[in-house]
Amino acid sequence: MGKRNSQRKNAAMMDSDDETSSVGSSSTVRSDRMSVSGTEEVNVDQDSLLDKALDALDEKRGSTREKAFSSIIETFNSNMQHEFVEKKFATLLHQCLGAIKKGSKKASANEIALASHAIGLLALTVGCGNNAREIYEESVRPLDESLTTRSDASKISSLVRCLAIITFVGGTDEEETEKSMDIMWRLINPKLGSNVVSVKPSPSLITAVVSAWSFLLSTMGKLKLNSKSWQNSITYLSSLLDKEDRSVRIVAGEALALIFEVGVIEKSSAGSNSGSDSTQEETKPHESYVHIHGLKGKVINQVKNLAVEAGGKGSAKKDLNTQKDLFRDISDFFEYGYSREIATKIGGDSLQTSSWSQMIQLNFFKHFLGGGFIKHMQENEFLHDVFDFTPKRRNLVDNEQRMSVGEKRMFKSPNSVQNKARTQLLNKQRLLSKDRNFGHYAVNAVEEEA
């Protein structure tokens, strides 16, 4: 079994042509940030550039505001903007929220997508702390309200990703995480009622929502399990494995692996001790356990079929191989209880992930940051804490030399946002890691009891 697990180990190396977010790909800033004399490039002060972009967000012309948001996104991707954030944090946040709120300036779908992406970058830049908390508290309601107006798919996807990031960084308890997950889930699998009209979600929307939903699920150390809710979630995700769109099948497979990694079967089988106030569902834990066990069996069969899929007409070989590799890993996980292991190249360093939760988090950040992923992984201390990742010393020295006086002061001060939040985040990650160490026992709980 050890040999088989070793053979299944993956080395996913970062490529320069990795998929990037469309809202972060503007080249506006590159042209504004430098002037060219022959072959020599002269960098313009980024704070000045950001100040101009911030002022432009008050312009009446929508295209001007969109260009300003693109500039802000590009600048936040290319360098850690701690000094600017220290001075203009509140102003930038409320300009972004102004674009997202319904009816404000009659913002286009593209502007709303850009503004929501900028909020996510702002949250990642400030890291844990009071500012991240403010971002979460101020943004959740406008994001939720904007998501209820189903329109442009790219706008909805950007709003969902933003909600995921601000909850991950600024949420303080699992109730808030569950609330954000519920907001996402109803977009693709709503509870239909007399006032709810069912609209079939597009494959791109399903992919974005399931990815963000899984990203938040990966942070849940102790699930408050409602077995009926998990039965519905597993059933729906299982149905996605039969969809034609390959990206939908992949995110659904990853979500299902994560659900069983956190020990849904084990915790459902434990049930609840019956008492005078117990509901009928709580007094029948075995029935729930058997049902979820049956769903797991169906999922395993689907996973095995996808691992050997022959492919169809027009099917790209690279995409097909990616799917088959993933579902072979998921099949091995269900059989042996060991999670996928990946080595990701980050500059001159290698980051190892050895659980579905870590892999899902890393992929989410990679896709959200796009071209800024390497830069943030090398210099963003929040992400260093999330993944327990320390770049090589030479990179740290280079980063130190590139820091402005204001940035150095923020990092070194005992009152900085980074230092205040580090202990809180590390404690959260250690608790989560401790829970993850028992994931493979949870997967095999059924076989052990049989």
From TrEMBL:
Domain Interferon-related developmental regulator N-terminal, chain residue ranges per copy: 25-335
Residue ranges occupied by any Interferon-related developmental regulator C-terminal domain in the UniProt entry: 380-430
SUPFAM superfamilies documented for this protein: ARM repeat (SSF48371)
Family matches, as Pfam families: IFRD, IFRD_C
Disordered: annotated segments: 1-42
Domain of life: Eukaryota
Family: Belongs to the IFRD family.
Listed name of the protein: Interferon-related developmental regulator 1
